[in-house]
Amino acid sequence: MANEIRDAVEALDAVKALKAVELPEAPGLMLTVDQLANIPPPAWLVEGLLPSAGLTVAFGPPASLKSFLALDVALSVASGCDWQGRETRQGPVLYIAAEGVSGFYPRIQAWLTVRPSTDLRAFRLVPRALNLLDRADRDTLLECAEELEPRLLVVDTLARCMVGANENDTAPMGRVVEALDEVRRRHETASLAVHHTTKDGGWARGSGALAGAADTMLRLKRRDQHLALETEKQKNAAEGEAIRLRFRLAEDSGVLELDEAPSISWKGPTRAMQHVSQVLQTTSGPLTGNAIEKLVRGFRSDTVRDALNQLVAEGCVRRESGPNRSQLHYFVRPYSDPDDG
């Protein structure tokens, strides 16, 4: 018993001695907990959406207005205007228009109709693709960044800036990310990469190295003139609610604005909606509701009516009174897509 008591006392003394030791300040790359506490939280380029000095990927299917979104963000940052009600951190913007420049000036003019007298002198556009896997093009990018010191770099689109490489291969995608990271390290620049989805629309195309390196992943969905911007990944903040937008024609192009009363269900069209839409698209002339019910087989009448009403609410189908005012006629609503990759 005496030996056990002695051992316990010695162990307690050892613990007291250990507590008395003052650890030195963490040298070099190592940080203490107190030092971590003094690191400021991540700053935002666009409040709650795009982090400063981070990589954001905005992806969506073709004609989902990705380029309209990217330009809207870019012009807001360059001018210091709020982006769709969110504060921005003003600064120079470098925009790589890798898919061509023909539509950009009309889009900018349309944007200015909503924000007249806005100063866009901090906006610069590169009118061709820069291959981020090519050393000469990377040097060109670094020279542009050295001159402008951009707060935001937009790559539109990522695929056009890695021509000749396999997007599914981790190595070239990693080199693309490293090229963007080099600009970030030198100038504390945020990057916004515009990217396509896979054929089934399930996720961003190519290697998972892109999503792994990204601070933010934004998915853009579109139904007619309505859009939903969903945050799929937000590294240093909570993922917020989807931002509902709508496209409105303006001048010779169009603008994005907040959708104050969205009526869209973003769960995707039901089978009944798909069948109703197909019937209307393959039939010449308008149809009455009763005619549509007879042509859409395999569904109850109330299911067909619900599908038809939802298509009307989403702007895919137009409903008008026929010659007999007691009958409503339905048409597929024509819509001309703006040029967008």
Structural account:
This protein is α/β, with parallel strands linked by helices and 341 residues long. 35% of the residues lie in helices and 22% in strands. The protein has ten helices and 14 strands. The strands form three sheets. It has a nine-stranded mixed sheet with strand order 5-4-6-7-3-8-9-10-11, sandwiched between helices. It has a three-stranded antiparallel sheet with strand order 12-14-13. Helix 8 crosses helix 10. The longest helix is centred in the first third of the chain and has 19 residues, at 2-20. 32% of the residues are buried. Mean pLDDT is 85; it is low at 333-337.
The arrangement of helices and strands along the chain is HHEEEHEHEHEHEHEEEEHEHHEE
User: What would the average pLDDT be, to the nearest integer?
Assistant: 85
Into which percentage range does the β-strand content fall?
15-25%
* Structural class determined from secondary elements: alpha/beta
Q: Compute the gyration radius: what is it? A: 27 Å
Low-confidence stretches: 333-337
Count of individual beta strands: 14
What structural keywords apply?
341 residues, alpha/beta, nine-stranded mixed β-sheet, 10 helices
Summarize this structure briefly.
This protein has 341 residues and is of the alpha/beta class. Helix content is 35%, strand content 22%.
